[in-house]
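Changelog-adjacent note: as of this version, every example in the card shows the full chain rather than a window. The one below runs 206 residues end to end.
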Amino acid sequence: MNKISMLRKPFVYFILGGPGSGKGTQCELLSKNLNFIHLSAGQLLRNAISNSSQHKTTIENCINNGRIVPSEVTISLLDKAIFENDKSDTFLIDGFPRNYENMINWIELMDHKINFQSVIHIICSKQTMIERIQERSKTSGRSDDNLQTLQKRFITFQNDTQKIIDHYRDLNQLIEINGDNSIEIVQEEILKRFKQIPIEEFKCQY
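Full-length structure tokens:
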């Protein structure tokens, strides 16, 4: 890591929501509209499997069973992805943290390196999420895009990730969006909410 990278303190938003809520789709659109960098925790983990990293077996077992990958593994991948990318100073982290341990470890390992902004929570009905995952499974090739794993992921989200959302709501660092609407409407709502953030906190590059 070069000296310039060490001096950077990128701005970070967490994007949370249940499986199929549209986190990835909305992050991709935001990255185009606002020149933010989208980092999918899930995709980084899947890439680590494809690249046969030292954590391949651990990650694969967790993903296929709907469990949360150990914090230090995911954080190390996110850390590397953030500080090796200098195309923007604002990052959208999709699908992380997923439980309280993730959050505490992130704070301990990353808080001094980055400027954390807020959490965007995309709220979506279970039926909508199921329908979206079923449609996505036709082309995604993802091993976790099946109903059996999906049910486990719903339980994980409700039991673990919901606590993260409640925590940031208590800190007044939560932006909640109705994800049952169309892709376009959801994106418009997120952009509108970003524009309401005080300019000193809203560090984007047009």
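Structural remarks: The radius of gyration is 16 Å.
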